[in-house]
Each structure stands twice: as C-alpha cells, then as structure tokens.
Write a structure and sequence with these properties.
By secondary structure, this protein is mostly beta strands. The protein has no helices and 7 strands. This is Fibronectin type-III domain-containing protein.
C-alpha cells in the first residue's frame, strides 16, 4: 500500500494537513495539536529522525467535536522537499498517541 508523501513546489514553504480529531477526547476539550516531520530535500538527502515542530503550526479550522475535521497549516518548510508528518492531539489529560505518518 503506497503512502502519500506531500511534496512542496519549488517556491512553497507551507502545506495544509487535513485530518479527523480523535473520537475519544477523554471528556475534555482538545487544546492543541503537536506535529512531527521528517523530510528529504530536493537533492535526495534524507534528514533522518522525526523532529517535533516547535513553531510554524497554525490551526485553520477545528470542528471541536470528536471525529470532527481539523485543518493545520504547517509553515517554515523547505521548497522542493518531500515531507512526512505525524500529528498528536493534546488536552488537560495529556497527549494522544501519534498518528500514522502521511
């Protein structure tokens, strides 16, 4: 089964991730989302490890319901690079598990 690997155009530095929020939020509202990324640059050099993004994440929409649509803009990316992302939700109980990479 082939996975989709988002690839940025030669001048793009942002991508939008669409996903569904967790179906079980533990009874508490979600407060934020954590994003990890791995990338291969335009020359084919792989960055190696997954890196937790500390900035450059913007919530574009969040339906605030279990299983609701969430759209995150991820900024500060390298033009021409291929990326994989993992996302986790966070509330007052802590962080969810990481999603499968996409």
């Amino acid at each position: 089964k082939q996975k989709f690997v988002p690839t940025l155009g030669s001048d793009a530095t942002m991508i939008v991730l669409e996903m569904r929020s967790p179906h079980d939020d533990g009874g508490l509202d979600l407060k934020s989302y954590d994003v990890m990324r791995a990338h291969t640059d335009s020359s084919g050099h792989r960055s190696g490890d997954w890196v937790r993004m500390k900035h450059g994440i913007e919530v574009l929409s969040d339906e605030k319901t279990p299983g609701g649509l969430v759209c995150l803009a991820v900024h500060d990316l390298l033009p021409g690079a291929s990326y994989k992302f993992k996302v986790a939700a966070r509330n007052d109980l802590g962080q969810s598990g990481w999603s499968a990479s996409s």
